[in-house]
Specification:
alpha/beta, four-stranded parallel beta sheet, about 40% helix, about 15% strand, globular
């Protein structure tokens, strides 16, 4: 069985892309795997993002902030999850991958009370979960054979929760 690799790409690879990677891997069927990376990785994961994943019962062991130059496999799908990454050019070695943008506000930049910060992380998590669940509910076996239709669905899903 072949594995379809989905890369969640952000600039810093410390928060949203990490949450998406861990959440996707938690929910995905066999044969689907997520990775995350950043164009300018922070080199560390956001502690609040890790806490949120732990609270949700989602494993995050082994995840780390990494560059898109350090991927162990070439992804099949690249989904950007932050506004600054949306306009960046993906590295040439990624080749003809499906690309989509699922912009999510960065909860790590929210200032306020602990409750407001927690609410921002919960909101980002909820948007990512809704989008990932919508992706996984699609007829994936069919869509991997029809790139145009798959791209349309990925773009549609990227508007959910906005």
């Amino acid at each position: 069985m072949t594995t379809t690799n989905v890369l969640f790409l952000c600039t810093g690879n410390s928060c949203r892309s990490l949450i998406a990677e861990a959440l996707f891997n938690h929910l995905a069927p066999e044969g689907w795997r997520a990775l995350s990376a950043g164009s300018q990785p922070m080199g560390r994961l956001n502690a609040r993002a890790l806490q949120l994943l732990a609270e949700k019962g989602i494993a995050h062991d082994g995840y780390y902030s990494k560059s898109w130059d350090a991927l162990p496999v070439t992804p099949d799908i690249v989904i950007t999850v932050c506004a600054s990454a949306a306009g960046e050019t993906c590295p040439a070695y990624l080749g003809p991958v499906l690309r989509a943008h699922w912009g999510v506000d960065d909860p790590s930049h929210v200032e306020g009370t602990p409750e407001e910060i927690s609410a921002a992380f919960e909101h980002a998590y909820a948007i990512l979960r809704d989008r990932i669940e919508a992706l996984l509910a699609l007829p994936l076996d069919e869509l991997v054979q029809d790139r145009t239709r798959f791209k349309t669905e990925l773009d549609r899903i990227g508007k959910l929760g906005n």
